[in-house]
Amino acid sequence: MTEMVLTGPKQTLFTEQLRLALDKWIAKYPRGRAQSAVIPCLHILQEANGGWLSRAIMDALAEYLSISSISVYEVATFYSMFELEPVGKHKISLCTNISCMLCGSEEILEHLQQRLAIKPGETTADGLFTLKEVECLGACVGAPMLLMDKQYHEYLTKEKIDALIDEVQS
Amino acid sequence: MKLDQVCFRTNHLSPSWTLDAYRQVGGYQVLENILNNKLKPESIIEQIKNSALRGRGGAGFPTGLKWSFMPRRLPGDKYIVCNSDEGEPGTCKDRDILRFNPHQVIEGMIIAGYTIGAQTGYNYIRGEFFEPIERFEAALEEAREAGYLGKDLLGSGFNFQLHTHVGAGAYICGEETALLESLEGKKGQPRYKPPFPAGYGLYGRPTTINNTESLASIPVILQHGADWFHELGTPNNGGSKIFCMTGHVNKPGNYEVPLGTPFAELLELAGGVRNGHQLKAVIPGGSSTPVVPAEIMMGLDMSYDGIAKARSMLGAGSVIVMDDSTCMVKALQRIAYFYYEESCGQCTPCREGTGWLYRVVKRIEDGQGKQEDLDRLVDVAENINGNTICALGDAAAAPVVSFIKHFRDEFQYHIDHGRCMDNTA
Hints:
CATH architecture of the largest domain in chain A: 3-Layer(aba) Sandwich
Strand content of chain A: 5-15%
Helix content of chain B: 40-55%
Structural class of chain B: alpha/beta
Number of strands of chain B: 11
Largest interface: A-B, 42 and 56 residues
Strand content of chain B: 5-15%
Number of domains of chain A: 2
Distance between the termini of chain A: 23 Å
Order of helices and strands of chain A: HHHHEHHEEEH
Largest sheet of chain B: 5 strands, mixed
CATH superfamily of the largest domain in chain A: Glutaredoxin
Order of helices and strands of chain B: HHHHEHHEHEHEHHEEEHEEHEHEHHHH
Shape of chain A: elongated
CATH topology of the largest domain in chain A: Glutaredoxin
Structural class of chain A: alpha+beta
Largest sheet of chain A: 4 strands, mixed
CATH superfamily of the largest domain in chain B: NADH-ubiquinone oxidoreductase 51kDa subunit
Oligomer: heterodimer
Radius of gyration of chain A: 18 Å
CATH topology of the largest domain in chain B: Rossmann fold
Number of domains of chain B: 3
Number of strands of chain A: 4
Number of helices of chain A: 7
Strand order of the largest sheet of chain A: 2-1-3-4
């Protein structure tokens, strides 16, 4: 992966490929409204940075969008999908809200904690998994469910959890 | 019972989400007719009003009336925004509309834009919906290539651009003014109303925000007529509605049935209550709607007015079914935690009150409850209710008040004995 450029003139920030991706979003909003692109841009930069946002990245994005750094920080800290500390290679977000709870998400959480030997909010020693307990992800008919990276996994059982983890570890 | 008449009308096709599939059910014909014959916006609004379509996001506000508030002749930018920030616990219908019939949302948004005088639309989709976002984007590409988006659509002189926007995990952004703030690249903190979005919306310009299911209903209403749609449901409750049947049912799923369908029939469609158990209670419209005990619920019809009879709400049609193994204290504890976690922190009664509600319910669940706690909970809930900028405060209060009202014995038992009644978890 090419190293991201985080200081210097706007037209050289990040990488060329990333600038193209960011510009595609910025173009969706009226002239002078580039701030609208802050959430999609943070998603792109977070993914390119191994799943988390450093302060230097947020500052560079502020520069790129011509907005203040605080405008980026307050968005990055408000929304639950943004990580401000390094995370594991794969992020597991387990829903434990009401419909999932009624369908056994507590047992699933317990099993995940045992298998990975971590608690929600923690990352495994090998840096492979971060576990998060999250609010409703809008797939309640498939309860219990989780989001791993970009993929929903529904109708979870202990066996499915084992298969999922085995596949990543192998 | 007629199933899959509106938003799921392509579900029998495989794949159901392509332009080809959508055309097979008459897709984009309504739009072509509107553009070719330059139909009067006023007549479209009249038809939507007559159809008795009510907002499918939860509030149930008449869609036609909402459209009529737009100052369509005002010069300058105006916007149509689709609210696909589905996040009310128990709700997962918009995800399936976007995955299985995205073109119908697109056609609905173009028609809405034409009608209210907007030339730009944004579909705000929650960030975790990677698959629905991909489907919607692919459908946008197809629609662009077919000439349904862009400049001078089908030679009508009407310009319309439509974009996907993504969220990043915040329940509050489902509230329409918080969604607008988020779309402007800010924290999702709701705005005071008035001014309403029709006067001061996105970037301060006139804006209409509709739920995904509402917008996807528009092409079908105009294709088959307002009367057809209205008669599918009941008076003042037009059309069909997707019900997300979740929790303790044998066949959880999204079922699109006519409004007014008896709850008992809907429950049967979802395979009935989990084998070996009896129905205990139902949250009929998502976690913020008041819980209804089984014996009352079994006599209700699934419509806005039908559920209102039990002093609850149809909400987004998110039916959370709880059987006799459910501890109501524990269920409320989880719901109370949700509102505490998701409060945006702007208004003191909600920011502080949701924490109080959660902590007091938790201590009752943990066997540390005090005799005065039930009255205290109701008191805190009532002090939040109506005292905040947006409805999240009311949404946090309603479950607490209704759970205690209908299941006070169970809460009292927890306080007295420090544990559940024998038959619950």
